[in-house]
Model the fold of this input.
Amino acid sequence: MKNKIIITVLLFLSFACKKEINTENTSRKTDSIKTENVSNDSVSDSMSDIKNDFDTKNLKLIKSLDDICAEDDGVFKNCDELYTKDGSNIFFLIIPKIGANNWYQNNSKKIKGEIYEINEQLCKLVLDKKNNLTSEFDVWAFYIDKKFTKKINLDTPYTPISPRQTSLLKLISSSQEQWEVIETFNVKSDKDETKETDWRNKKIDEFITKSNLKEDNKTLPSNWIGQYSVYFDYGNTGGQNTGWELDIDINSTNITAKGDGFQIGFEDQLNLSEITQDEIQLKHKKNLSGYKLGEKMNPEFTLKKIGNKFYVESKWISSDVKNLKSKDGYLIEKNK
Done:
C-alpha cells in the first residue's frame, strides 16, 4: 500500500513539472523558471513589487568606474559588464558637455599615435576627472539594483533577473555624488529583454545626437535641412564625357557629403561649424569611405543661399570643371 502511495505522489509531481515547463525549448524554459523564481522575497510577479526603492543619495557608483572605453568620437562607456561589490549592475555613458565630437576634435589633435593610442589617452583624460566629472561631462548610468540580480559562478559574478526594473540615472553632482532618476523600464519577463535593450540603445543614440547638435552651441535653422546635389562636368576626357556628382544630405541629426565619379570617390560625415543669415560652413567630422582628403579641409564645404538659389564651395572642386563659378561659388540644387 505504501509503495502505491509513493508511486502516485511521484506521478503527480512529474505531471505538475511537465505542466509548469512548456515542452517548447524545454532546457531554455527551465533556466528561465529558475531565474524568475529566485529566493528573494522582494521580487514577485506583481509589478508593484519590482519598483526600485534605493536611495539615490546613498549610491556610490563612481568608485566602480575604474575602466572605460571610447565607443565613438568623444563618447565613453563601460569596457565590460560592471557590477558593484554588493551585486548592483551599472552601465555608464559619459559625454562631454560641449558636444562629443567637438571635445574629441579639440583633444585628439593634441595626441600623436595610432587611433587606439589616442583613445587610450582620451580615456585617461576622462578618468583623471573622476572626482569632478560633472564639471566637464554629462554622466548617465543604467542601473539595476542588487535586489534584481543573483550571484552566479561564472566570470561575471552576477546576472540580472526578471521581473525587474532598470533605472536611467543622471549624475547631478560629482562632489557629493548625487544622482537623479530620469526614466525607468520594467522587465516583466524574458520576453521584455529585447525591448529593454532597444530602450537603452534609443536613449544612448538620443543623448549622442543631442550632444553633437549643440556643437559650439550652434543650432541648424530648419531652412537649411534638405538634400543638395550638383554634377561637376570635366567635359571630354580621352574620348568620353567625365565628371562627378556631389550630394550633401542635411537633416536634424546628421550631415553627410558624398562624391562619386571620375577620379573621385568619398563619403564624409560633417558638423556644423559657422552660421550666418545666408551661409553655413560644414567642417569634417570623419571619413565614412573613400578618399580622406576632407580631413585637411577647414571647412570642407561652404553653402550659401542667395535669394532662392544655393551655392557651394569646397577644395574638392577642381578649377578644371566646366561649371560656371560665380563670386558665391558653384550653383547647387536643393531638393526638399
